[in-house]
Amino acid sequence: MSTINYSEKIPNNVNLGEDRTLQRALEGWQPNFINWWDDVGPEGSTNHEVYLRTAVSVDPQGWAQFGHVKMRDYRWGIFLNPGDANREVHFGDHKGEKVWQDVPGEHRANLRRIIVTQGDTEPASVEQQRHLGLTAPSMYDLRNLFQINVEEGRHLWAMVYLLQKHFGRDGREEADALLQRTSGDANNPRILGAFNEKTPDWLAFFMFTYFTDRDGKFQLAALAESAFDPLARTTKFMLTEEAHHMFVGESGVSRVIARTAQVMNELKTDDAQKIRAAGCIDLGTIQRYLNFHYSVTIDLFGADQSSNAAIFYSSGLKGRYEEGKRDDDHVLKGQTYKVLEVKDGQLVEKDVPMLNALNEVLRDDFIKDSVAGVGRWNKVLEKAGIPTRLVVPHKAFNRQIGALAGIKMSPEGRVVNDIEWAAKRDEWLPSSEDFAFVASLMGRVIEPGKFAGWISPPVMGINRQPVDFEYVRFG
Ligand SMILES: [Fe+2]
Ligand SMILES: [Fe+2]
C-alpha cells in the first residue's frame, strides 16, 4: 500500500483528495513519470539544487514561489484557473449553451486526440533539451533551461490529469503512452514533426523556445476557449508559464545578436569567418537557424485546409486565438479565408471556406506575433549601427505539411527547381558545417556571473536577484 498522501504531495486546486479513483490512477502514474524524468530528463542534474519558481496555487501570490529545489523533488501539481459557473460556449454550433464540466460522448474521441496531441509535446521538449545542461553558457541560462524543463513536466501532468479524470481506461492508457513515446525514436516517436527534431545547441534552444514554445502559446490559447471547461481552465493556467519560455527564447537570441554585433564593431567587419574566428556566431548562421525553426514550427499548425479543424471549431472543442475579442458571428459558416497553393509554378491565393482554414488562421496569427519579436532583434542591430536585418522566411518555405509540402521555395517565396534548391540549401538552412561550428562554441560556463564569449549577459537576473546570483548549487 502506498503511504504517499497525494492530496498533499501533489499541489492541486482540484480537490484531489476527494476523488479516490483519480488519486489511485495518479498514484500509479507518478512513479512512471519519475522514472521517465530520470531516464530522459535533464542529463546529470540529479543533485543540482536549482532556483526555481514553483506554482503552489493559481493566485498571484502562489503561482511563482522561488527557492532552491532538486528538480526531482519539484512539486509537479495540478492547477485549473478558477471556474465561472455562468460560463457559456461562445463559438460554434453550441454557442450560448452552458460549458461542459465533463466530456460529451459525441466529442470524446476528438477531445482525447486534442489533449493527447498537446500532452505529447510537453515531455518531448524535455527530451529534446536533455543534453543542453552540459553546455550551458552560464549559470543563469542553466537555471532558465531547468525552469522550462520542470514546467513542461508540469504541463504533462496537466494533460494527464484531464485524461485520467475524464477518459476512463482509454485515458489511463494514453497517459502511459505519453511516457513511452520518445522524441526522435525511430519506432515510437513523438506525434508531431518539430518535436522529433534535435535541439543540439543553445542557439537552437533559444530559437526553439522563441518559435516552438510560441506555437504552444497559440495552441493553448485556442484550447483556453474550449467548451470543455476543465480543458479551458487548465490551459489558461499553462499560458502563464509559457510566457517565461518565450522570454528565454527572445532574450536569448537577442543576447547572441548583441554579442555578435559588439564583436563586429570591435573588429570593424561583417566577414563571417572573422566573426567566427573571434568566437561569435555570424548573422548568416543566426538567419539560417531562424529559417529552420520558423518553418518547422509553422508546420505544427497542420494542413491549411482541414475538415478536422472545422469540426473542432463547430463542436466548440477548440476556438480561435482571442476568440472573445473578435467581432464576427463566431460561427463562421459561409465565410471564406485565403490560403496559398502552387499553380503553374507560381504561388497563388485562393478563397476557401473559413471553417476549413482555421489551422491557417491560427498560423497567420502566430506569424504576426513571431514577426514582432524579430523586429525587436533587429533593433539590437540597428542600435549597434549594423545594417543587416533578420527576416522570417516566406510562409511557404521549407514546408512539410499541407498544400505547400514538398514545394521547393526560396526564403523570399520564389518557386525554385531542384537544382537551385540543392545549390542554395546551405545558404538558406543550417548546414552540417554551421552545426559543427556552433557546437564548437558550446562549452560549460557555470561560475556565477560568468558568460560564454558568444552571448551577452542579460540585463537583469531572475526574480530581482543579481545576474551573478548562485542560481544553481551543484550537489
Ligand atoms: Fe508546455
Ligand atoms: Fe513551453
Automatic annotation (TrEMBL):
GO molecular function, one term: oxidoreductase activity
Tagged with keyword Disulfide bond: no
GO annotation, cellular component aspect: cytosol
UniProt keyword Flavoprotein present: no
Source domain of life: Bacteria
Transmembrane feature ranges: none
InterPro entries the UniProt entry points to: Aromatic_CoA_ox/epox, Benzoyl_CoA_Oase_BoxB, Ferritin-like_SF, RNR-like
Name this polypeptide is given: Benzoyl-CoA 2,3-dioxygenase component B
Record organism: Variovorax boronicumulans
Higher taxonomy: Bacteria, Pseudomonadati, Pseudomonadota, Betaproteobacteria, Burkholderiales
Gene (UniProt): boxB
